[in-house]
Amino acid sequence: MYEMCVGPEKAGGALVWHVMAKQAAATLCGEKLRERIEASDGERARHCPDCMASFEKLMATSPC
Questions:
Q1: The model scores a pTM over 0.90
Q2: H-type helices in the chain, by residue range?
Q3: Which stretches of 1-64 are assigned E, i.e. beta strand?
Q4: Residues 27 and 33: beta-carbon distance below 8 Å
Q5: Strand order in the sheet with 2-8
Q6: What angle do CA 43, 46, 52 make, to 5 degrees?
Q7: What are 15-56's pLDDT values in tens digits?
Q8: CA distance 36 to 5
């Protein structure tokens, strides 16, 4: 199971939506989100391209 989390694209960068596996320590792109940011703060944020590419690969190889 995966969830979307708002966090900086890189340390100190603009907010983006990352993909994170439940109970994981880092996002699919490898970022460690140090603080929980409210989803409303990311309403207009774009999606992290690295997370989305990793998620696409995972879904393409996962059995239904």
A1: no
A2: 49-61
A3: 2-8, 15-21, 46-47
A4: yes
A5: 2-8, 15-21, 46-47
A6: 125
A7: 999 999 998 999 999 999 888 888 887 888 999 999 999 999
A8: 8
